[in-house]
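Dear support,

I submitted the protein below through the web form. The confirmation email said the job was done, but the results page showed an empty box. After a refresh the structure appeared. I'm attaching both so you can tell me whether what I see now is the final result or a partial one.
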Amino acid sequence: MAQTILFDPLVPVWLIWALGVLSVLITGLALWRGLAGWPLRALAAVALLSALANPALQSEQREPLSDIVLVVADQSASQRIADRPDQTEAALAALEAQIAALGMEMRLARVGDGADNAGTLLMTELARMLAEEPRARVAGAILVTDGQLHDVGLAPDLPAPLHALLTGRSDDWDRRLVIETAPAFGIIGEELMITLRIEDQGAVPSSLSGRAEIAISIDGAPAQSYAVPTGQTLQLPLTLEHAGQNVVQFTIPEAMDELTARNNAAVVQINGIRDRLSVLLVSGEPHPGQRTWRNLLKADPSVDLVHFTILRPPEKQDGVPVTELSLIAFPTRELFMDSVDDFDLIIFDRYQRRGILPLTYFDNISRYVEDGGALLLAAGPDYAGAASLYRSPLADILPGRPTARVIETPFLPEISELGQRHPVTAGLAATHTPLPGQDQPWGRWVRQVEVIEQSGQTVMTGNGGAPLLILDRVGEGRVALLASDHAWLWDRGYQGGGPQLEMLRRLAHWMMGEPELEEEALVAETDGQTIRVTRRTLADTVGQLKVTAPDGSESAVLLEEVMPGRFAVEITAAEQGLYRLVEGDFETVIALGPAAPREFEQTIASDHLLAPLSGAVLRLQDGMPDLRRVAEGRMTEGRGWIGLTPRAAYVTTDVKVTPLIAAWLFMLLILALSVAGWLREGRR
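What the results page shows now:
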């Protein structure tokens, strides 16, 4: 029950003030004139003014409300290391018991990692909780955290003290790998720089400070280890070996008693690009398709093409003096001995041995291929004759042996069953639109050299199922044999044409080792929290995909065939970090978000962000503090205790208003005082 006196004037307030001033003047005049009844007149005026003010007694029935304590528990990734989860749960249980003992209510919110690597957003959650509760009931707020929050500037204006209970230990320490700068792309064969640093935090053991070991692995290859200093910026020179994505993984081993190994690894994905592709094209006898390769390669501005056509072989004797010829002599030694390793691809287009290239040069070309070069033969009738390149030292690396038979019957090139899986020919028909009413995907060719496959894979077949396009790997290099010189018919639109440019482009890029055309590969890419994994293979089946999450947990995932030679799966990742994917002998790593999320940039529990805020910041390592009621304006912390401010909030259930004095009593009082004053003055 609560009672207060209210005033509900019967006339405007300004009129009461005016009457009050008038009453004072009249009383003063009576006093000046010496009238004996002036006190009674003054009391009558006061009674009149009080009656006009209409005083009343308000009685309220109030129901008290309990105070509310807001508790925010940090359950981000950095709070899930060491024994911090146990510390957090023990603190929450103790808080719940003590808050209930004080007759207050606890509102609990658990906060995980922020979206898009935003970190720990405790203050954002606290502001949300405060907006949902009546401010008049909030007796305080308590954070259970390691102190590493990322929105401290958004702390709300609380009507009560804010305290923090820190998890962690005073002797915690951690080692972290930081990639400061890394290029997004690099030119193959040229040196680039990656800047990194190994950073120690917390109470680092003296025996481990100053030096660390770092392991570097490129594209899942065996790692190489180096001893490097800690706390210093290091410049790492790196040379890319192939085009496409080069995945460089850095790892430092987990040290003794280190807080976590989640920030001990980093992945840098660098796109390797070729500065200029150097291609040597050697054409034999001129033929209608000679410009096919030239047009394809010259259309690419990144290709440096060196093209020679043998127009005048040594045995040709027509009586024309050499001094009158405008032909350029074929620089055979410079090309095939001195500079052969400078070419990314060598193409022989209908070339046959004509005494121009000694056998030693062919030996050198074989060595060039085995060391990582690429050789393509576009064969015509020359490959079936006695002067065939197969009857040279190149026979050891060529995938098809000619039978000396040239088939000149029209045939439809077809993708073999294996070719349906190979990236060079897979889906090739979909890249060409046949003529209306045409019942075949593309036009026919009319000449093919019969060859017998000796090695490699036949991805296209021709007349009677004979090998038409054979691809092979020799040592570190690649060899391709196209057993026909009629691919140009597709370019001319014969019988509707065909995907000649696309086929030759894929073939050339496969030979130069473009990653997207590798027939055996494990590729991963990210989209938000989803990891898309693609396994390209020539086999009919693949094994399970082994996934190692950032926390070290392993799982097996089935890959489903989405098209011939391609198996895929999408994985929804639970947390950011470094994922390792393994299928058979193939392995790759991919970072979802940063390899070490924002939560692991600073892992040592600290009060440096929370100290400027009001209230206490205490370590749970020193024991759970007691909760006490403290009056508003008093100290809210002390040795082993923190204070909560009682709010005494209530809700009004009933209100009753009663006039303080009845109107007729006011009238009698005013009349009595007026008559008494008159009588007093009359007797005098």
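Response: this is the final, complete result; the empty box was a page-load delay. The domain at 521-592 is CATH 2.60.40.10 (Immunoglobulin-like).
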